[in-house]
Design a protein that fits this description.
Blueprint: E1 2-5, E2 16-19, E3 30-38, H1 41-48, H2 55-58, E4 73-81, E5 93-97, E6 105-108, E7 111-113, H3 120-123, H4 127-140, E8 148-152, H5 157-168, E9 172-177, H6 182-187, E10 192-195, E11 208-213, H7 220-225, E12 227-235, H8 244-254, E13 261-264, H9 271-283, E14 290-295, H10 299-308, E15 314-318
Parallel strand pairs: 8-9, 8-11, 9-10, 11-12, 12-13, 14-15
Antiparallel strand pairs: 1-2, 3-4, 3-6, 3-15, 4-5, 5-7
Helix pairs in contact: 4-5
The protein binds NADP nicotinamide-adenine-dinucleotide phosphate.
Residues 40-41, 128-129, 132, 152-153, 155-159, 176-178, 181, 196, 214-215, 217, 236-239, 244, 265-267, 309-311 line the site of NADP nicotinamide-adenine-dinucleotide phosphate.
Length: 319
Protein backbone atom coordinates (compact mmCIF):
# COMPACT_ATOMS: atom_id res chain seq x y z
CA UNK A 1 0.00 0.00 0.00
CA UNK A 2 0.98 3.65 -0.35
CA UNK A 3 1.76 5.48 2.87
CA UNK A 4 3.34 8.71 4.02
CA UNK A 5 6.62 7.79 5.69
CA UNK A 6 9.66 9.41 7.26
CA UNK A 7 12.94 7.72 8.08
CA UNK A 8 14.23 10.37 10.46
CA UNK A 9 12.89 13.11 12.71
CA UNK A 10 12.60 16.50 11.08
CA UNK A 11 10.36 19.08 9.40
CA UNK A 12 7.77 18.54 6.66
CA UNK A 13 10.60 17.99 4.14
CA UNK A 14 11.42 14.54 5.58
CA UNK A 15 8.10 12.94 4.58
CA UNK A 16 7.49 11.11 1.31
CA UNK A 17 4.98 8.68 -0.15
CA UNK A 18 6.35 5.11 -0.34
CA UNK A 19 5.09 1.55 -0.82
CA UNK A 20 4.94 -0.28 2.51
CA UNK A 21 3.33 -3.50 3.71
CA UNK A 22 -0.35 -3.44 4.58
CA UNK A 23 -0.95 -3.63 8.34
CA UNK A 24 -2.13 -6.99 9.65
CA UNK A 25 -5.69 -7.45 10.83
CA UNK A 26 -6.08 -8.02 14.58
CA UNK A 27 -8.68 -10.45 15.96
CA UNK A 28 -10.51 -7.64 17.76
CA UNK A 29 -9.95 -4.99 15.07
CA UNK A 30 -10.85 -4.02 11.52
CA UNK A 31 -8.83 -3.25 8.41
CA UNK A 32 -9.97 0.08 6.98
CA UNK A 33 -9.40 1.43 3.48
CA UNK A 34 -8.66 5.05 4.43
CA UNK A 35 -10.43 7.81 2.47
CA UNK A 36 -9.40 10.79 4.59
CA UNK A 37 -7.22 11.67 7.54
CA UNK A 38 -6.58 14.90 9.43
CA UNK A 39 -3.56 16.58 10.98
CA UNK A 40 -3.04 16.98 14.70
CA UNK A 41 -0.36 18.44 16.93
CA UNK A 42 0.42 14.89 18.08
CA UNK A 43 1.41 14.01 14.49
CA UNK A 44 3.50 17.17 14.30
CA UNK A 45 5.32 16.28 17.52
CA UNK A 46 5.79 12.71 16.24
CA UNK A 47 7.28 14.07 13.02
CA UNK A 48 9.71 16.38 14.85
CA UNK A 49 10.47 13.90 17.63
CA UNK A 50 9.40 16.38 20.30
CA UNK A 51 9.92 16.52 23.19
CA UNK A 52 13.45 15.17 22.62
CA UNK A 53 14.00 14.05 26.20
CA UNK A 54 10.89 11.88 26.09
CA UNK A 55 11.71 10.22 22.74
CA UNK A 56 12.52 6.81 24.27
CA UNK A 57 9.15 6.79 26.04
CA UNK A 58 6.87 8.45 23.50
CA UNK A 59 8.45 7.61 20.13
CA UNK A 60 10.40 4.44 20.82
CA UNK A 61 13.55 5.73 19.13
CA UNK A 62 16.13 8.23 20.39
CA UNK A 63 17.90 8.95 17.09
CA UNK A 64 15.34 7.64 14.59
CA UNK A 65 11.61 7.06 14.87
CA UNK A 66 10.80 3.43 15.59
CA UNK A 67 7.88 3.51 13.15
CA UNK A 68 8.31 5.12 9.72
CA UNK A 69 4.54 5.68 9.57
CA UNK A 70 2.77 8.83 10.71
CA UNK A 71 -0.78 10.13 11.24
CA UNK A 72 -3.58 9.14 13.61
CA UNK A 73 -7.13 10.19 12.65
CA UNK A 74 -8.91 8.46 9.78
CA UNK A 75 -12.25 7.83 8.11
CA UNK A 76 -12.85 5.17 5.49
CA UNK A 77 -14.53 1.87 4.60
CA UNK A 78 -14.10 -1.43 6.42
CA UNK A 79 -12.26 -3.91 4.19
CA UNK A 80 -12.10 -6.86 6.60
CA UNK A 81 -13.04 -7.60 10.20
CA UNK A 82 -11.16 -9.64 12.83
CA UNK A 83 -12.72 -12.90 14.05
CA UNK A 84 -13.86 -11.37 17.37
CA UNK A 85 -15.61 -8.36 15.83
CA UNK A 86 -19.41 -8.51 15.85
CA UNK A 87 -20.49 -4.87 15.52
CA UNK A 88 -18.88 -3.98 12.16
CA UNK A 89 -18.83 -5.63 8.72
CA UNK A 90 -16.95 -5.14 5.44
CA UNK A 91 -18.37 -2.17 3.55
CA UNK A 92 -19.27 -0.17 6.71
CA UNK A 93 -18.24 3.49 6.61
CA UNK A 94 -16.30 4.27 9.78
CA UNK A 95 -13.96 6.69 11.54
CA UNK A 96 -11.45 6.35 14.37
CA UNK A 97 -7.80 6.59 15.26
CA UNK A 98 -4.61 4.55 15.04
CA UNK A 99 -0.96 5.39 14.51
CA UNK A 100 -0.05 5.20 10.81
CA UNK A 101 -3.26 6.69 9.42
CA UNK A 102 -1.64 8.71 6.59
CA UNK A 103 -1.81 5.56 4.50
CA UNK A 104 -4.14 3.60 2.23
CA UNK A 105 -4.96 1.07 4.95
CA UNK A 106 -5.01 1.11 8.72
CA UNK A 107 -5.71 -1.71 11.15
CA UNK A 108 -7.55 -0.43 14.22
CA UNK A 109 -9.79 -1.30 17.16
CA UNK A 110 -11.02 2.20 18.09
CA UNK A 111 -13.47 2.52 15.21
CA UNK A 112 -17.16 3.49 15.05
CA UNK A 113 -19.68 3.93 12.23
CA UNK A 114 -19.59 7.23 10.37
CA UNK A 115 -22.99 8.95 10.43
CA UNK A 116 -24.44 9.12 6.90
CA UNK A 117 -24.89 12.91 7.05
CA UNK A 118 -21.15 13.67 7.22
CA UNK A 119 -18.42 13.15 4.62
CA UNK A 120 -15.28 11.08 5.12
CA UNK A 121 -13.34 14.35 5.27
CA UNK A 122 -15.56 15.66 8.09
CA UNK A 123 -15.49 12.41 10.06
CA UNK A 124 -11.68 12.31 9.73
CA UNK A 125 -11.43 15.52 11.79
CA UNK A 126 -13.01 13.95 14.87
CA UNK A 127 -10.41 11.62 16.44
CA UNK A 128 -7.85 13.45 18.54
CA UNK A 129 -9.40 16.94 18.40
CA UNK A 130 -12.94 15.73 19.07
CA UNK A 131 -11.93 13.44 21.92
CA UNK A 132 -9.77 16.18 23.46
CA UNK A 133 -12.62 18.69 23.40
CA UNK A 134 -15.14 16.15 24.71
CA UNK A 135 -12.98 14.64 27.46
CA UNK A 136 -11.58 18.04 28.49
CA UNK A 137 -15.00 19.62 28.97
CA UNK A 138 -17.07 16.66 30.09
CA UNK A 139 -14.68 14.59 32.23
CA UNK A 140 -12.03 16.95 33.48
CA UNK A 141 -14.13 20.04 33.96
CA UNK A 142 -17.44 18.35 34.67
CA UNK A 143 -19.07 21.22 32.82
CA UNK A 144 -22.56 21.97 34.14
CA UNK A 145 -25.45 23.23 32.04
CA UNK A 146 -25.71 27.01 32.43
CA UNK A 147 -22.06 27.35 33.45
CA UNK A 148 -19.88 30.02 31.88
CA UNK A 149 -16.95 28.60 29.93
CA UNK A 150 -14.14 30.42 28.16
CA UNK A 151 -12.35 28.64 25.32
CA UNK A 152 -8.92 30.22 24.90
CA UNK A 153 -7.84 29.28 21.37
CA UNK A 154 -11.26 28.75 19.79
CA UNK A 155 -10.27 28.68 16.14
CA UNK A 156 -8.05 25.62 15.68
CA UNK A 157 -8.76 21.90 15.55
CA UNK A 158 -9.58 21.41 19.24
CA UNK A 159 -11.01 24.90 19.81
CA UNK A 160 -13.68 24.84 17.07
CA UNK A 161 -14.99 21.55 18.46
CA UNK A 162 -14.69 22.69 22.11
CA UNK A 163 -16.95 25.69 21.40
CA UNK A 164 -19.61 23.41 19.92
CA UNK A 165 -19.34 20.69 22.59
CA UNK A 166 -19.57 23.29 25.38
CA UNK A 167 -22.71 24.61 23.66
CA UNK A 168 -24.11 21.09 23.36
CA UNK A 169 -23.47 20.59 27.11
CA UNK A 170 -25.58 23.70 27.76
CA UNK A 171 -22.86 26.20 28.70
CA UNK A 172 -22.66 29.92 27.97
CA UNK A 173 -19.56 30.04 25.77
CA UNK A 174 -16.98 32.81 25.36
CA UNK A 175 -14.55 32.12 22.51
CA UNK A 176 -11.10 33.76 22.29
CA UNK A 177 -9.53 33.90 18.83
CA UNK A 178 -7.80 36.20 16.36
CA UNK A 179 -9.59 38.90 14.33
CA UNK A 180 -9.95 36.81 11.18
CA UNK A 181 -11.67 33.99 13.08
CA UNK A 182 -14.27 36.05 14.99
CA UNK A 183 -17.03 35.31 12.45
CA UNK A 184 -16.19 31.60 12.41
CA UNK A 185 -16.48 31.43 16.22
CA UNK A 186 -19.88 33.17 16.10
CA UNK A 187 -21.06 30.82 13.35
CA UNK A 188 -20.02 27.84 15.49
CA UNK A 189 -22.36 29.08 18.22
CA UNK A 190 -20.19 31.03 20.68
CA UNK A 191 -22.32 33.43 22.77
CA UNK A 192 -19.45 35.91 23.07
CA UNK A 193 -16.30 36.23 21.00
CA UNK A 194 -13.16 38.07 22.12
CA UNK A 195 -10.50 39.04 19.61
CA UNK A 196 -7.23 38.39 21.47
CA UNK A 197 -5.40 41.01 19.44
CA UNK A 198 -7.68 43.69 20.99
CA UNK A 199 -8.91 42.28 24.29
CA UNK A 200 -7.03 40.46 27.02
CA UNK A 201 -9.69 38.27 28.65
CA UNK A 202 -7.72 38.14 31.90
CA UNK A 203 -8.18 41.91 32.31
CA UNK A 204 -11.96 41.92 31.86
CA UNK A 205 -14.66 41.92 34.54
CA UNK A 206 -16.34 38.66 33.42
CA UNK A 207 -15.74 35.57 35.56
CA UNK A 208 -15.83 31.95 34.36
CA UNK A 209 -16.79 28.62 35.87
CA UNK A 210 -14.18 27.07 33.71
CA UNK A 211 -11.45 28.02 31.30
CA UNK A 212 -10.40 25.56 28.62
CA UNK A 213 -6.86 26.73 27.90
CA UNK A 214 -5.97 25.47 24.43
CA UNK A 215 -3.73 28.30 23.21
CA UNK A 216 -1.81 29.25 26.37
CA UNK A 217 -0.26 32.70 26.50
CA UNK A 218 -1.52 33.66 29.99
CA UNK A 219 0.02 33.01 33.40
CA UNK A 220 -1.79 31.27 36.25
CA UNK A 221 -2.21 34.49 38.32
CA UNK A 222 -3.78 36.18 35.29
CA UNK A 223 -6.23 33.34 34.62
CA UNK A 224 -7.04 32.88 38.32
CA UNK A 225 -8.23 36.50 38.35
CA UNK A 226 -11.12 35.67 36.00
CA UNK A 227 -12.12 32.32 37.54
CA UNK A 228 -15.15 32.14 39.82
CA UNK A 229 -14.22 31.08 43.40
CA UNK A 230 -15.24 27.49 42.52
CA UNK A 231 -13.99 27.84 38.95
CA UNK A 232 -11.72 25.32 37.24
CA UNK A 233 -8.96 25.47 34.66
CA UNK A 234 -8.26 22.65 32.24
CA UNK A 235 -4.97 23.03 30.40
CA UNK A 236 -5.12 21.40 26.98
CA UNK A 237 -2.02 22.84 25.31
CA UNK A 238 -0.31 26.04 24.23
CA UNK A 239 0.39 27.86 21.00
CA UNK A 240 3.87 26.95 19.73
CA UNK A 241 4.83 23.30 20.26
CA UNK A 242 8.02 24.13 22.09
CA UNK A 243 6.19 26.33 24.61
CA UNK A 244 3.72 23.70 25.55
CA UNK A 245 5.59 21.79 28.26
CA UNK A 246 6.90 25.03 29.75
CA UNK A 247 3.36 26.48 29.88
CA UNK A 248 1.88 23.36 31.45
CA UNK A 249 4.67 23.15 34.03
CA UNK A 250 4.38 26.86 34.90
CA UNK A 251 0.60 26.63 35.40
CA UNK A 252 0.84 23.45 37.46
CA UNK A 253 3.61 24.87 39.68
CA UNK A 254 1.96 28.27 40.00
CA UNK A 255 -1.35 26.76 41.06
CA UNK A 256 0.00 24.21 43.57
CA UNK A 257 -1.40 26.04 46.59
CA UNK A 258 -4.52 27.32 44.90
CA UNK A 259 -8.02 26.29 45.96
CA UNK A 260 -9.01 26.27 42.32
CA UNK A 261 -8.96 22.96 40.47
CA UNK A 262 -6.31 22.98 37.74
CA UNK A 263 -5.91 19.99 35.45
CA UNK A 264 -3.81 18.90 32.53
CA UNK A 265 -4.85 15.74 30.75
CA UNK A 266 -4.01 13.73 27.65
CA UNK A 267 -6.98 12.62 25.56
CA UNK A 268 -7.45 8.87 25.11
CA UNK A 269 -9.06 6.96 22.26
CA UNK A 270 -12.01 4.79 23.22
CA UNK A 271 -15.08 3.59 21.38
CA UNK A 272 -17.80 5.00 23.69
CA UNK A 273 -16.42 8.54 23.32
CA UNK A 274 -16.02 8.14 19.54
CA UNK A 275 -19.68 7.04 19.50
CA UNK A 276 -20.66 10.18 21.47
CA UNK A 277 -18.91 12.26 18.79
CA UNK A 278 -20.72 10.27 16.07
CA UNK A 279 -24.05 10.99 17.80
CA UNK A 280 -23.25 14.72 18.04
CA UNK A 281 -22.35 14.72 14.33
CA UNK A 282 -25.54 12.88 13.41
CA UNK A 283 -27.73 15.26 15.42
CA UNK A 284 -26.06 18.26 13.78
CA UNK A 285 -24.74 19.62 17.12
CA UNK A 286 -21.18 19.18 15.87
CA UNK A 287 -20.19 20.65 12.52
CA UNK A 288 -16.52 20.08 11.67
CA UNK A 289 -14.68 23.15 10.40
CA UNK A 290 -12.30 22.21 7.57
CA UNK A 291 -9.80 24.86 6.53
CA UNK A 292 -8.33 23.01 3.55
CA UNK A 293 -8.09 19.55 2.01
CA UNK A 294 -4.86 18.20 0.50
CA UNK A 295 -3.97 15.04 -1.47
CA UNK A 296 -1.51 12.63 0.14
CA UNK A 297 1.04 13.78 -2.44
CA UNK A 298 0.69 17.34 -1.07
CA UNK A 299 1.37 16.24 2.52
CA UNK A 300 4.55 18.33 2.84
CA UNK A 301 2.54 21.49 2.07
CA UNK A 302 -0.18 20.46 4.50
CA UNK A 303 2.37 19.87 7.27
CA UNK A 304 4.09 23.20 6.56
CA UNK A 305 0.79 25.08 6.84
CA UNK A 306 -0.12 23.16 9.99
CA UNK A 307 3.26 23.90 11.57
CA UNK A 308 2.65 27.65 11.23
CA UNK A 309 -0.08 27.24 13.87
CA UNK A 310 -2.94 29.34 12.49
CA UNK A 311 -5.20 26.74 10.88
CA UNK A 312 -8.94 27.51 10.95
CA UNK A 313 -10.41 24.27 12.23
CA UNK A 314 -8.71 21.29 10.62
CA UNK A 315 -6.48 20.36 7.68
CA UNK A 316 -7.54 17.16 5.94
CA UNK A 317 -5.50 14.71 3.83
CA UNK A 318 -7.42 12.67 1.28
CA UNK A 319 -5.85 9.31 0.61
N1 LIG B 1 -3.99 17.46 26.05
C1 LIG B 1 -4.30 16.78 24.96
O1 LIG B 1 -4.68 15.59 25.01
C2 LIG B 1 -4.22 17.48 23.64
C3 LIG B 1 -4.81 16.91 22.50
C4 LIG B 1 -4.77 17.61 21.30
C5 LIG B 1 -4.12 18.85 21.23
N2 LIG B 1 -3.51 19.33 22.34
C6 LIG B 1 -2.82 20.64 22.30
O2 LIG B 1 -3.80 21.65 22.11
C7 LIG B 1 -3.26 22.73 21.40
C8 LIG B 1 -4.13 23.06 20.20
O3 LIG B 1 -4.19 21.97 19.32
P1 LIG B 1 -4.95 22.14 17.94
O4 LIG B 1 -4.90 20.82 17.26
O5 LIG B 1 -6.27 22.78 18.14
O6 LIG B 1 -3.96 23.16 17.21
P2 LIG B 1 -4.25 24.13 16.00
O7 LIG B 1 -5.32 23.53 15.14
O8 LIG B 1 -2.96 24.48 15.39
O9 LIG B 1 -4.89 25.42 16.69
C9 LIG B 1 -4.17 26.30 17.44
C10 LIG B 1 -4.98 27.60 17.44
O10 LIG B 1 -4.44 28.44 18.44
C11 LIG B 1 -4.80 29.74 18.07
N3 LIG B 1 -3.91 30.73 18.70
C12 LIG B 1 -2.64 30.99 18.42
N4 LIG B 1 -2.19 31.96 19.26
C13 LIG B 1 -3.23 32.30 20.06
C14 LIG B 1 -3.40 33.22 21.13
N5 LIG B 1 -2.39 34.00 21.54
N6 LIG B 1 -4.61 33.29 21.73
C15 LIG B 1 -5.64 32.52 21.33
N7 LIG B 1 -5.53 31.62 20.32
C16 LIG B 1 -4.34 31.52 19.69
C17 LIG B 1 -4.67 29.79 16.54
O11 LIG B 1 -5.75 30.58 16.08
P3 LIG B 1 -5.55 32.03 15.44
O12 LIG B 1 -5.12 31.81 14.02
O13 LIG B 1 -6.91 32.59 15.61
O14 LIG B 1 -4.48 32.73 16.25
C18 LIG B 1 -4.88 28.33 16.12
O15 LIG B 1 -6.07 28.19 15.37
C19 LIG B 1 -1.83 22.30 21.01
O16 LIG B 1 -0.94 22.83 21.95
C20 LIG B 1 -1.87 20.79 21.13
O17 LIG B 1 -0.61 20.22 21.38
C21 LIG B 1 -3.55 18.68 23.54
Amino acid sequence: MKALVRHRYGGPGVVQVEEVERPTLEDDGVLVRVHASSLNKADWHDLRGWPRLLRPVTRGGVLRPKSVLIGTDFAGVVEAVGKDVTDLAPGDEVFGGRHGAFAEYVSATNVVRKPPNVTFEEAATMGIAGLTALQGLRDHDRLQAGGCVLVNGASGGVGTLAVQIAQALGAHVTAVCSTRNVEQARALGADRVLDYSRIDFTRERERYDLIADIAGGHSWPAMRRVLEPEGRLVVVGAHGSRNQLRHIAAIKLGSLRSKHEVKFFVAKFNKPDLQTLADLLESGQLRPAIDRTYDLAEAQDALRTFGEGHVRGKLVLTI
